[in-house]
Amino acid sequence: MLEEFRPPERVPKSFGSSRLLLRQYRTSDAESLAALLAISYQDHLAPWSPPGMERDAEPTGGGRAAREHILVALDKCEEGSDYRLFITLRETGEIVGQMGLTQIIRGVSQSCFIGYWVGLPYVHRGYATEALVLAMEFAFDVLKLHRVSLWIATGNEVSLKIPARLGLRFEGTAIRGLFLGNKWHDTHIFAMTSEEWSERKAELKSIFVPREITLVSGTADEIQLSS
Length: 227
Ligand SMILES: CC(C)(COP(=O)(O)OP(=O)(O)OC[C@H]1O[C@@H](n2cnc3c(N)ncnc32)[C@H](O)[C@@H]1OP(=O)(O)O)[C@@H](O)C(=O)NCCC(=O)NCCS
What we know:
Aminopeptidase, nine-stranded mixed sheet, single chain, binds coenzyme A, alpha+beta
């Protein structure tokens, strides 16, 4: 098997820039997640959320539903089929949103989907754009995937600005492609391959991850990805 077709033996639990740290969930995050969802869900996330997310916003039982969500996500991380990561602020540790590399397919596909949300108090600071570039670096340089795609509902104008800003390739529209906010949405598909990433990595990182510092060994629990 070609080296690049193998999943990595060891995946870091966190990575990031000097501003953001994307890190795996911890069970102790349940209350913070539920609290952020409680203030963000109704007016901000609801139209673009998959079924069941409103349960995670339930503060009852110290965020019991959020805890279950975290446990399921940790299992999938362990299997290497999904990586759901919190977008956190490096300086304070606050959770500001979530980035998911999901439905990882190995074999002939070597692909995943990327999805994200940022909590209402933290929008318009460039966090989603920066975190997406970091997630693509994780997908290509750490997970050794060949292709990532973003599926965005055609009515989600704010989210559509992100692939536009990054110049991701538009591949077409899936009619009634995603069930979000309790209805089917036509969905624009954007993608990047590892070949495109190699060509564009330096440019994307210099524009959207300008605060990066140093490269640290990939064997540590946290790695600082190289520029
Ligand atoms: C879509 C979403 C993730 C965007 O998150 P975000 O962190 O606000 O996105 P960004 O800050 O990277 O980009 C948004 C805007 O902030 C602006 N911005 C970037 N850096 C900035 C900074 N330092 N200061 C102020 N504004 C900034 C960007 O230019 C952009 O503005 P524009 O759209 O007018 O061009 C967020 O609104 C969200 O979670 N929405 C609901 C769920 C959702 O739609 N998820 C995506 C499903 S596909």
